[in-house]
Structure to design on (237 residues):
């Protein structure tokens, strides 16, 4: 079996040794998942978009992220573009309308509507030229970076927040350029995403379990009925 060396920071290496973790098995599993994600993304960005669902292979993408990609394809075709670029990815991300990436933009004092206007995409209309049937090089690169950002955060899914990171980290596309010109760079975006996800996890941990709450309410409501049944059983017994 081929051997691959994995280099770790000294503190992490010591912690791994102390915990006696099966490094080989863990790395193998992580690499298997990473290869599957990268393969799925490359198949999508290199494939033909003229299908019923061009995002069907991206099963690790959330529903909102896949919707954003579909909206990006629609925007590119509406604008008469020959390929889907990062400006269309960013347009789709904003047009989806209900994702974490939009909250992050607002946290960084960027109005999504302003970002949309700055993109300045042509109005949808009838175009005689060929419609976009594939992702451009910048969008393909951004989508691969999207998966890298998700893996770097230790996530087993790809959401709109990761797509935002991929767009802003991609150096050549119009989408990332617009974000950087408006003041959002890759480093600040990563910090904002990490903070937002940390806050969300904290809120979930603090929130009461809705199932337990419903169960408690039902128990309280049925308590008088149960008590009456028990008294009847005692009389009949």
């Amino acid at each position: 079996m081929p051997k691959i060396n994995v280099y770790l920071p000294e503190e992490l290496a010591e912690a791994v040794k102390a915990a006696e973790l099966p490094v080989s098995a863990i790395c193998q599993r992580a690499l298997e998942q990473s290869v599957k994600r990268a393969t799925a993304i490359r198949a999508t960005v290199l494939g033909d978009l003229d299908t019923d669902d061009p995002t069907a292979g991206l099963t690790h993408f959330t529903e909102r992220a896949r919707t954003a990609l579909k909206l990006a394809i629609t925007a590119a075709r509406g604008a008469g573009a020959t390929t889907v670029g990062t400006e269309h990815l960013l347009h789709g991300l904003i047009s989806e309308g209900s994702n974490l990436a939009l909250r992050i933009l607002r946290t960084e004092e960027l109005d999504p509507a302003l970002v949309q206007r700055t993109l300045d995409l042509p109005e949808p209309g009838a175009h005689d030229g060929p419609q976009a049937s594939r992702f451009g090089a910048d969008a393909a690169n951004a989508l691969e970076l999207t998966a890298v950002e998700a893996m770097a955060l230790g996530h087993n899914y790809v959401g709109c927040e990761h797509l935002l990171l991929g767009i802003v980290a991609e150096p050549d596309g119009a989408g990332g350029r617009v974000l950087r010109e408006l003041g959002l760079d890759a480093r600040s975006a990563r910090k904002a995403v990490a903070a937002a996800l940390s806050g969300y996890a904290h809120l979930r941990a603090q929130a009461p379990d809705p199932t337990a709450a419903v169960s408690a309410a039902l128990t309280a409501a049925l308590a008088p009925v149960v008590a009456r049944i028990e008294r009847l059983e005692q009389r009949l017994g």
